[in-house]
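quick one before i forget lol
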Amino acid sequence: MRAIQAILARNLIKFFRDKMRFFFTLFMGGFLLFTFSFVMKSAVAGLAHPTNYLISGIVIMMVFQSALNNSMSILEDISSGFMKEILVAPIARWQIAVGQVLSSAVLAVLQGVLILVVGIFMGLSLDPMHFGLMVALMLLVGVTFSSLGLYLAALSKESTTFQVLISVVTMPLTFLSGAYIPTTVLPSILRPVVFLNPLTYATSMFRYTALRMESMSTAELVKSGVAFDLHGFVIRPLDGVLITLTIGTVFFALCVRQFRKADFSRVTVFKRGGHR
């Protein structure tokens, strides 16, 4: 446990010392909040709380993308020689993998909380209980997609390949999850992809909490795009928690397995002016 805690603490300190990264986290989050909350509010004008609807989608997208992108740091650590010192230490590789996943997830949650606080100043209405539930959901999403990110990083071993993989994963998952565009208005031909998208269920349960939809009927949840009717079988937001947890467990097992057997001696990180 001390090894995991040390890796977690080191990555957190590294993040807070990187003032530019911290600034752009706030800047990009604020920019997205402004763009979607004001410019695109008319697209969801029929909803009771359009601001909550849009901001909740933006926050969970920030957590999702941050969790994936934070995994890039493992490649930088390996190429700089820092990870080599850890790999020769008397600790198991799975502990290193767990520490990396947890640190990426915690950083993603911190970034999500920062954007959530900005959203509160922009009109997002939350009570302490729902705020706590949203943080817990962010942690679940963070661990799930940090595991996916570490798996892709260990699989690719090159930052350029990793960035391509992240782009391929991020674009379809983001726009077919209902975060920005309600799934109810997507073409029917895309519905199978929407239902196979793990981020769809993460978004639905996050939005279910943000909009306080506990008192709504199943039919109303389906109409709002928060529950999904699969030929009579309805997937409710609480079912989405179990689905996300299952997917996270699979990704976590895969990333630990890939990290344990990976050969990091040929890892390269692209920098301006060449490879390192």
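fyi The two ends are 32 Å apart (CA to CA).
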